[in-house]
Amino acid sequence: MRSNAVILANRAIKIKVFNAKKFALWLFLISVCMLFAGLTSAYLVKKSDGNWLQFDMPQIFLYSTIVLIISILSMHWTYRSAKNNTLLSLKWGLLFTGLLAIIFSYLQFEGWGQLVETNVFLVGNPSGSFVYVFSGLHLVHLLGGLGFLVVVFVDTLKFQVHSKNLLTIEMCTTYWHFLGGLWIYLYLFLVINN
Amino acid sequence: MSITDIEITQKLAHEDDHHEEHHDQPFIFKYIFSTDHKTIAKQFLITGIFWAILGGGLSVIFRLQLGFPDMDMGFLQPILGNWISNTGKLDPEFYLAMITMHGTIMVFFVLTAGLSGTFSNFLIPLQIGARDMASGFLNLLSYWFFFLSSVVMFISMFLSTGPASGGWTIYPPLSALPQAMSGSGTGMTLWLVSMVFFIASTLLGGINYITTVINLRTEGMSFRRLPLTIWAFFITAVLGLLSFPVLVACVLLLVFDRSFGTSFYLSEIFIGGEALPNLGGSPILFQHLFWFLGHPEVYIVILPALGITSEVISTNSRKPIFGYTAMIGSILAIAFLSFIVWAHHMFITGMNPFLGSIFMFLTLIIAIPSAVKAFNYITTLWKGNLIFTPAMLFSIGLVSFFISGGLTGLFLGNAAVDISLHDTYFVVAHFHLVMGSAAFFGLLAGVYHWFPKMFGRMMDEKLGYIHFWLTFVGVYLVFFPLHYIGIAGFPRRYYSFTNFDAFQSFTDLNAFVTVAAAITFGAQFIFLFNFFYNIFKGKKAPLNPWNSNTLEWTTPRIPEHGNWPGDIPKVYRWPYDYSKPGAKDDFIPQTVPYSETPESNTDFDNEMMKNEGITK
């Protein structure tokens, strides 16, 4: 009993060191999760309150979701290229992912246009306003991710991203996958609730 | 490839000794845009002190209105200008602005930024044995976001339409409609802008604190050997990380309602007989979102103060803290419970009584970990060799407030009682004691205790004693009578109560409270003198003035950037080996290995000693 406690205490002394920057990124992701958890639960609370407009989600959001899923795959491929030191495909992968992100943003704007055509406006019943707020806020985070991609791309041009220096691209990939997952969650949430 | 490898090693080597090269920095980087956690902590402290004076000053002015409603306030005209009418009366809308600003300033700027910002920054690296925070740059950003937020809030107080006036909880529709009151115009907009910067600052700080505690502890500093201060700061940062984003969500929707015409919180409102176009929103939604932050926020305020108290009481009782594990457990329990009790602020919003009873049950459970903490403080004090330093007195004061204010929490947590006491002065008395004054005393205890480490000089003890007794007695004289006024049914935030016959008999009591508040506020200037004078003229501090065990006292008198000139010390034991039987001194610092103290080792320690070689 006693010796067990000693072993446990000693085991605890050996400190496992994570990478501090990566860890901080995860904490940031947690806080973004809380932001959207707050918003989506506000949506549910408001919906259960009644006086709620039901409408179909525009088809275009499905297309944008598919584009975003492709960009997740291409980001993953990019990361693999960095790991395998195939620097050319790394650069193309980053460019391709960035291009998909821009297409995604464009499709989101188009989606808002379609919402307006079906008489769902930002100003009006909260059920519509929430769609704009969710997608807009996600887009803001995605633009941040796009900026991160640019930073990684500039690093690539300086030959600073390769199998022995994966930190930035690892963090970028984590963030990108997170953004993808977040949008899939928001999309499914909105489709199921409409 | 080999070239890049060399580059990496050079880069790593460079990062390793970066702490050695900050000796001759220009003034602007050493004192203003500094990345040194100690300087940033002092910046937070000084800014917090500035806000505390302002927030306290506002409270004295509105107490004058409450205590002496017939008073001629013309003498305040030079400061408040047109907010004082020509007949010497305080403007009623400005009264609302002042209570709003008092709440906002005290909760966010003093007791969140001033308390967590100061002591988390100062103590985390020093007590866990780190050179600095995980990211000095993020830390710098954290302070300057706070500074920007302060500037915006300060400017809002000088608007001709007044600052935000809907109470610190900014409930819509009052805060959402500029037509509702003059403070809901530009003043409210600036409040929201300021809070956005404030939240950014808190999140950056919080991410840094958590990362630092988890990643940068020195060798041997396991979680079971962390001082309780660090445990408290760590959990506080986790609370902030989880709850402030929800405030962002809450405030964001309010911004949309105010600026873009959406209807998240607004529905079926008539102003001047005309209907507003907003339909389908719900102001209760705001309250849910707000209190999901708002309740953890009160623990963000009190937990660091409790952590500081644990450290100060144990050191000055010359005894190990009673129930170290129970203390950690109670911090964790309070943190967990704080997220599932928010609706006890909303018993009278027409919520389902069944739901109310669930929230009531959860709320009352918080009494258990809180009582664990209170009992552990008292049992630590019990039969200790008490040394009454000013920090110790303020810590004991905190325990007193925490108990007497906490007891009324049991009343208010009951939905049935809360329905009649809600929004009365009883609530004001409750939270000012249990959270306001208690956290404020924790802040003061921390300043008195760590002043020698911050500035390398000592504060004057006698002035500290005078400051303590005036403040301690003053706080009770201010807030105890408010319980009676509250039970009598007087609502908070009202401009005047002379119009109601039922409250005539409380006129004297209110005047008494106002006098007590003014004296208590005045007593703080003793502290201010003591603080600023001794930064420059104080007696030079010894290396370990309180004979304390924790790591910060192993640094030089004034630590450079990097904290320890040589290697970071290793840690061999927990921080509470005070008066250990057999030991020659009544304290054994954390850096002393068990192998050097065979006379005081227990069997357990001897077992640990065998493994010290492995951890070295």
Q: Count of helices of chain B? A: 19
Number of domains of chain B: 1
Shape of chain B: globular
Most extensive interface, chain pair and sizes: A-B, 49 and 59 residues
* Main CATH class of chain A: Mainly Alpha
Approximate helicity band of chain A: over 70%
SSE order of chain A in H/E notation? HHHHHH
Average pLDDT metric of chain A: 88
> What is the name of the CATH superfamily of chain B?
Cytochrome c oxidase-like, subunit I domain
Tell me roughly what share of residues is in helical segments of chain B: 55-70%
Could you describe the largest sheet of chain A, including whether it forms a barrel? none
Our count of helices of chain A gives: 6
Radius of gyration of chain A: 21 Å
Which structural class fits the helix and strand makeup of chain A? mainly alpha
Give the low-confidence spans of chain B: 1-22
CATH topology of chain B, what is it called?
Answer: Cytochrome C Oxidase, Chain A
Itemize the secondary structure elements and their pairings.
The complex is a heterodimer of chains A (194) and B (616).
Chain A: H1 2-13, H2 20-48, H3 60-83, H4 87-117, H5 126-157, H6 167-192
Chain B: H1 2-16, H2 27-32, H3 37-67, H4 77-80, H5 92-128, H6 136-156, H7 186-215, H8 228-259, E1 270-271, E2 274-275, H9 283-317, H10 324-337, H11 353-365, H12 367-381, H13 390-413, H14 415-421, H15 425-455, H16 461-487, H17 507-537, H18 603-610, H19 612-615
Antiparallel strand pairs in B: 1-2
Helix pairs in contact in B: 3-5, 3-6, 3-17, 5-6, 5-7, 5-8, 5-9, 5-15, 6-7, 7-8, 8-9, 8-10, 9-12, 9-13, 9-15, 10-12, 12-13, 13-15, 13-16, 15-16, 16-17
Outline the structure in words.
- The complex is a heterodimer of chains A (194) and B (616).
- By secondary structure, chain A is mainly α.
- Helices cover 79% and strands 0% of the residues of chain A.
- Chain A has one domain (18-192): Cytochrome c oxidase, subunit III, four-helix bundle (Four Helix Bundle (Hemerythrin (Met), subunit A)).
- Chain A has helices at 2-13, 20-48, 60-83, 87-117, 126-157, 167-192.
- The longest helix of chain A is centred in the C-terminal third of the chain and has 32 residues, at 126-157.
- With 616 residues, chain B is mainly α.
- Chain B contains 19 helices and 2 strands.
- Chain B has a two-stranded antiparallel ribbon with strand order 1-2.
